[in-house]
Amino acid sequence: MKKKESEKTDGFSRRNFIKTSAAGMAAVLAGKSVVFAPPANRTMRVGLIGCGGRGNGALGNCMEAAKHIDGLELEVVATADWFKSRAENAGKRYNLPSSRCFAGGDAYKKLLDMDVDVVVIATSPNFRPVHFEAAIKAGKHVFMEKPVAVDPPGGRKIIEAGELAKTKGLGVVAGTQRRHERSYRRTAYAVKHGAIGDIRGGCVWWCGGALWYKRKNTGESDADYMVRNWVSFTEMSGDHIVEQHVHNLDIANWYIGHPPKTALGFGGRARRKTGNQFDFHSVDLDYGDGCHIHSMCRQINGTDGGVKEFFAGTEGTTGGGGGLKSTKEKDIDIPDFPKQGAYVQEHIDLLNSILKGKPLNEARNVAEATLVAIMGRISTYTGKLVRWSDLTENEDSPWYNLTLKPTAEDFEKGEVEAPPDDVAPIPGAGERRRR
Ligand SMILES: NC(=O)c1ccc[n+]([C@@H]2O[C@H](COP(=O)([O-])OP(=O)(O)OC[C@H]3O[C@@H](n4cnc5c(N)ncnc54)[C@H](O)[C@@H]3O)[C@@H](O)[C@H]2O)c1
Question: Measured in angstroms, how far is the CA atom of residue 397 from the centroid of ligand 1?
Fold first, then answer.
């Protein structure tokens, strides 16, 4: 049913939010997850762009989140995927007709043309800047998966669109879910309130085994192959330092309070089978004032793993999500943040913020974490020291306009040529050069 104009965009009357927000704020301060009660029996319409494993999972988490908010109903109205079968499979879970399960490079546009309030975006990361910008221009609230770009212009586009979202009163939450996880929120609170003093150094890890990979089918287009095998191509995923390790880099930025000034690292490709990514990176991130964070990530079977963070400060130490060792700990009254799992809590926080009329906006945080990872990757691929300003300010830098091709626009135009398989950058020879 078509909604009235007054119910569109954020779906709710702001007068009603104001009536309930004082009680909601009291609940937040008391550490409860159910916060701003919206007017009873309101429906928000949700669409999904990118119907793979995480897209289906995130949409389910979003639907689950609504159950924690009194009076809120969510209705899934459309799906969009590169492949029709995936859009339809996701749509079937919500009884959508095939006509509302869009496919192809412009499927996101068809979905955004619909009367949708919230969009869940979970394609491979290379499409995120174009899809996110389009969603914000179309007036949608957004949940988008991490990472949010594969190159510096993409990261900057996310920041710009995030600023636009603020002016339009739109909510933006990213899939860097540790920011919604109780253990991390408690640790972040303690760190921000001086529990370990000034952070002087630390280490962040995402080390594990190899992910899945796909071989090219006979007669398959390069575009379909790259979409199916996206975790092996830097142009699609950003490399695993971006795709996975972004989570830990985001924690370092969050706890220290700003991104690093420089990155200098090394890495290589030892055992990967397809695509052009490295499978290990080790990067020194200089956050300034003598604070260095060692970033290390690896995707090699049979090696020791670990996904975690460690910070050493002038007054103590801590892991990212707990393990605080500080003489000051007992002086800090840490709030009892919601106990709900982070994958659902991030949607509760987004929806509640929309209902409150004070939409969360995590675009800059996730873009900065993504750009730090890209900065590390440029350094490991080239062997050069890379400055934050090279990606964000210095237009004369060779990396400021570094654009990985095929771009999202190339996919939409049908102009995709896959890079060769099993060819990786050689440090010292310049980014993206062949062996
Ligand atoms: N926050 C987390 O813990 C977490 C966990 C897993 C994945 N992720 C992220 O979620 C995203 C998706 O990962 P996944 O594991 O679901 O991958 P996936 O391959 O299972 O799904 C991606 C889907 O996007 C579709 N797609 C690709 N290009 C598209 C386009 N232009 N338009 C519409 N659809 C398109 C693909 O066909 C596929 O169905 C990635 O960014 C990944 O890093 C986050």
Answer: 31
What is the H or E stretch that residue 253 is in? helix 246-256
H or E element, residue 381: helix 363-382
Q: Cis check for the bond before 406: say yes or no (omega within 30 of 0).
A: yes
Do the beta carbons of residue 123 and residue 90 sit within 8 Å? Answer: no
pLDDT of residue 328: 78
Taking the CA atoms of the chain, what radius of gyration do you get in angstroms? 22
Expressed in angstroms and rounded, the spacing between residue 49 Cα and the centre of ligand 1 is 9
227 lines ligand 1 (CB under 6 A): yes
Residue 16 Cβ inside 6 Å of ligand 1? The answer reads: no
Determine the Cα–Cα distance for residues 251 and 176; give it in Å rounded to an integer.
9
Q: How far apart are CA 420 and CA 402, in angstroms?
A: 19
99 CA to middle of ligand 1, Å? 22
Q: For the chain, list the domains and their CATH numbers.
A: 5-179+342-363 (3.40.50.720), 195-334+368-413 (3.30.360.10)
Q: Which of 48, 49, 54, 109 to mutate to test the pocket of ligand 1 (most atoms within 8 A of CB)?
A: 54
Our mutation pick for probing the ligand 1 site, out of 49, 173, 227, 362, counting the most ligand atoms within 8 A of Cβ, is 227
Which tens digit of pLDDT belongs to each residue from 310-356?
A: 999 999 999 999 999 998 777 899 999 999 999 999 999 999 999 99
Residue environment code for 314-349, b if the CB has 16+ CB neighbours within 10 A, otherwise e: eebbbbbbeebebeeeeebebeebbebebbbbbbbb
pLDDT tens digits for range 53-86 = 999 999 999 999 999 999 899 999 999 999 999 9
CB 382 within 8 A of CB 266: no
pLDDT at 331: 81
Local structure of residue 427 (DSSP, 8 states): T
Reduced 3-state DSSP string for 109-174: HHHHCCCCCEEEECCCHHHHHHHHHHHHHCCCEEEECCCCCCCHHHHHHHHHHHHHHHHCCCCEEE
Report whether residue 122 contacts ligand 1, using a CB cutoff of 6 Å: yes
* DSSP letters spanning 280-292: EEEEEEE-STT-E
